[in-house]
Amino acid sequence: MANRIPRSSSCFFIFLLLPLLLQFCSGKSDLQLNYYSESCPRAEEIIKEQVINLYHKHGNTAISWLRNIFHDCMVKSCDASLLLDNAPGMESEKNSARSFGMRNFKYINTIKQALESECPGTVSCADIVALSARDGVVLLGGPEIEMKTGRKDSKVSHAADVDSLIPNHNDSMSSVLSRFQSVGIDAEGTVALLGGHSVGRIHCINFVDRLYPNADPTLNPAHVEYLKRRCPSPKPDPKAVEYSRDDLATPMVLDNLYHKSILDGKGLLIVDQELASDPLTSPFVQKMAADNDYFHDQFSRALLILSENNPLLNDEGEIRKDCRFANKN
Ligand code: HEM
Ligand SMILES: *[C@@H]1O[C@H](CO)[C@@H](O)[C@H](O)[C@H]1NC(C)=O
After folding, report:
1. Is the alpha carbon torsion for 291, 292, 294, 298 positive or negative?
2. What CATH architecture does domain 173-306 belong to?
3. Which band of pLDDT confidence, cut at 50, 70 and 90, is reported for residue 329?
4. Does the structure show a pLDDT above 90 at 18?
5. Mean pLDDT of the chain, nearest integer
């Protein structure tokens, strides 16, 4: 009798094991912190080293990594479908109109090669998309974000769905909000994420319709004159290199100057400007413009939700050997 475990404590023991057992039986594990701790212990360090090296050579790579996570995770799943090249019968998402201006894809291969030489076939391209964005944000003066890993890569591109899943520059705020809502991001998170436009550039073709033939009255009139000098042609060639920025003062820093600028009528895209004027979003814009720490907290929260959108787990996807191509089986 003396060495029998009391019934109440054995029940408690089973209760503790239950989630583990369930996970074991279903054979499915969720995203987790340090997913590669045993299979490739230096994975996260390697990615960070490469992101830092690339940033010192080409500062705008960090900006590209941030745009990448949006364009990958917003389209069905954070599955690196964005990175696939054209293949027979398969159009690349990179060629879609919404991907206009995206750059630096070739340097993803630099990161992938560093991982392949240490741990072949182990770290997914989808996790590279997520962690490179996370590490890029820090280099851009943004917040540090703890991200889970374990995403698998898709075998197919979702090019045909890009237009319906990534908002256009002139969409209504209600449609933008419902797109973000459908991946679990509320209005406050949307206002924070659009703060991504605090870094990088926007080509004239995306906003000349607000300058010519008549200036959009919601644009700051002095800014219209400035932008007309930046964008002299009312019908720029899609290959034209002229651009401006939402944050002219610190375009390499992820700060709340974006929110200040759109309140000043200097948002370039219609969606930028709507964010400042729509009653559902403008209170958050004002609060972020006044408080950079609050912006960063909300940005972290929303980027994390985005980064966990519908990941492919276990055998739902593969670990691509080259981020540009599905593996040949
Ligand atoms: C309604 C949602 C959004 C729309 C319509 C939109 C649209 C655009 C457009 C048209 C450009 C300019 C491309 C060019 O002319 O080269 C751009 C640039 C950019 N976007 Fe967005 N965007 C949205 C949300 C986001 C989000 C959520 C992020 C990230 C958190 C993001 C990150 C960026 C970055 C970093 C750039 C600059 C890229 C560079 O300089 O290479 N965008 N976006
Ligand atoms: C939005 O911009 C696209 C070009 O990107 C254009 O084809 C379309 O007509 C515009 N829509 C509206 C409602 O202005």
Report:
1. positive
2. Orthogonal Bundle (1.10)
3. confident
4. no
5. 94
* Cβ(65)–Cβ(305) below 8 Å: no
- Options 3.30.360.10, 2.40.50.100, 1.10.10.10, 1.10.520.10; CATH for 43-166+308-316 is 1.10.520.10
Q: Which pTM does this prediction carry? A: 0.93
At a CB cut-off of 8 Å and minimum separation 6, what does 126 contact?
A: 72, 78, 79, 80, 151, 152, 153, 154, 311, 312, 317
Whether omega before 279 lies within 30 degrees of 0, making that bond cis, reads no
Are 326 and 312 spatial neighbours (Cβ–Cβ below 8 Å)? no
Residue nearest to atom 11 of ligand 2 (CA): 170
Cα–Cα distance for residue pair 316/299, rounded to 1 Å: 29
Token duo for residue 113 = 């090669």
How far is C-alpha 21 from the geometric centre of its chain's CA atoms? 34
| Residue nearest ligand 2's atom 3 by CA | 170
Nearest Cα neighbor of 134 from 124, 125, 144 is: 144
Q: Is the dihedral of CA 116, 325, 200, 73 positive or negative?
A: negative
Catalytic pick among 58, 71, 158, 203: 71
The one-letter amino acid at 150: G
Close Cβ partners of 325 (under 8 Å, ≥ 6 residues apart): 84, 85, 87
Whole-number pLDDT of residue 20 = 55
Taking only the tens place, the pLDDT of each residue in 264-311 is: 999 999 999 999 999 999 999 999 999 999 999 999 999 999 999 999
Distance 245 CA to ligand 2 centre (A): 20
- Would you say the CB of residue 169 lies under 6 angstroms from ligand 1? yes
Domain ranges of the chain: 43-166+308-316, 173-306
What pLDDT score does 1 carry? 42
Q: Is the pLDDT of residue 254 over 50?
A: yes
| Residue located via tokens 């240490």 | 118
pLDDT at residue 15 is higher than 80: no
